[in-house]
Specification:
By secondary structure, the chain is an all-alpha fold. The chain has one domain. Helix content is about 55%, strand content about 0%. α2 crosses α3. The longest helix is centred in the middle third of the chain and has 16 residues. The chain is globular.
Length: about 60
């Protein structure tokens, strides 16, 4: 898996609060059966997938 720095993620969302809420919400969607927007291994955790989706610009907060 690629190393994704906190600085990279903060550039995408602007604050740790927004980033945390977005990652948690997306992980819950993935657990609920929504389609993954990045390649993921079978044993990869949903939170890791959610963070990668944010880092790659696939998921954003509505209105931004």
């Amino acid at each position: 898996m690629d190393e994704i720095s906190l600085e990279t993620l903060l550039k995408k969302e602007g604050s740790i609060f927004k980033l945390t809420n977005l990652a948690a919400a997306r992980a819950m969607e993935l657990n609920g059966g929504m389609k993954k927007l990045v390649e993921a291994g079978p044993k990869e955790k949903m939170t890791t997938i959610a963070i990668r989706e944010i880092a790659y610009g696939k998921v954003k907060i509505k209105g931004t």
